[in-house]
Amino acid sequence: MRRGRQAFVLSWVAVCAAMFRGEIAAAADLQVExxxxxxxxxxxxxxxxxxxxxxxxxNVMSNWAEGFRKxxxxxxxxxxxxxxxxxxPALIAGTAQxxxxxxxxxxxxxxxxEKKFGYPPTQMRxxxxxxxxxxxxxxxxxxxxxxxxxxxxxxxxxxxxxSAIDNWGDLxxxxxxxxxxxRLYGRNSASGTYGYFKEVALCGGDYRDTVKEQPGSSAVVxxxxxxxxxxxxxxxxxxxxxxxxxxxxxxxxxxxxxxDPEEVYAGKYPLARFLYVYVNRAPxxxxxxLTNEFVKFALSHEGQEVVLKEGYLPLKAAxxxxxxxxLR
Length: 328
Prior knowledge:
- The chain has helices spanning 3-23, 58-71, 87-93, 107-117, 146-153, 192-200, 217-225, 261-265, 289-298, 301-309, 317-325, and strands spanning 47-52, 75-80, 99-101, 122-130, 132-136, 143-145, 183-187, 212-214, 230-234, 243-245, 247-249, 272-279.
- By secondary structure, the protein is an alpha/beta fold.
- 47% of the residues are buried.
């Protein structure tokens, strides 16, 4: 195992844990904080908006667009969610004003943007996701360590496993399923979820060639739903009654944490992440009014209600205020 990669992953998880712990308190009944202001409609907002990027955020973006159009019936919003890697080129080319991503922009994507405009894009946190490892609802497996997840999905095993995990029995499953191979479902390389899972869960290692790459998050969940031998990864917003999520531990010496909101908010779940929308805002200058109002709507009480409805975790008021400050 490469110690540098392990140190990066462990430190990244620690940073995220501290970030979530510091910003967000656990709540028994998840709801949007009352301190997040309702959206205030502005006059003179009209025109066309385009959003290109994350499949994970596709349903959220579509519902934001629907709610936004109720405020401004003359506005048209086009949503395309083929994967986070499609977002930076569209933002750079000006074919999209909104670039939703389920991961942060990579260094080369930031460099390409800054080379053209002379300044970096503005990153807006808009929601929180618990990236889940799914099994079929009747599968007896309930938990796994990230080391085991890596040994299941990756051929490199950079997270420290001494051998590959091929069959369900290797994860402690008993009975007839024990001797059966684990069939793997994942996203394609255009997906930010693909990149995030590779970096954090696989310690940067390559996926196995046997992973069935799916064009969208819902297809991953559907594949696992129909396959008792299946295991896949996808955003928590795509969870259905046909699957269950595994509790995850960073390693064999760490406690297991579930995708429950209180676990994520407390910084305990190791695959928690922010979801983003990037925009092109020149330093010292305001965003164009249409894009600006859409982002403000996403960060309003109504916008964060959409996040909650779609199965993700809304931001807290302190985080919303930090993001809105980027627009001023």
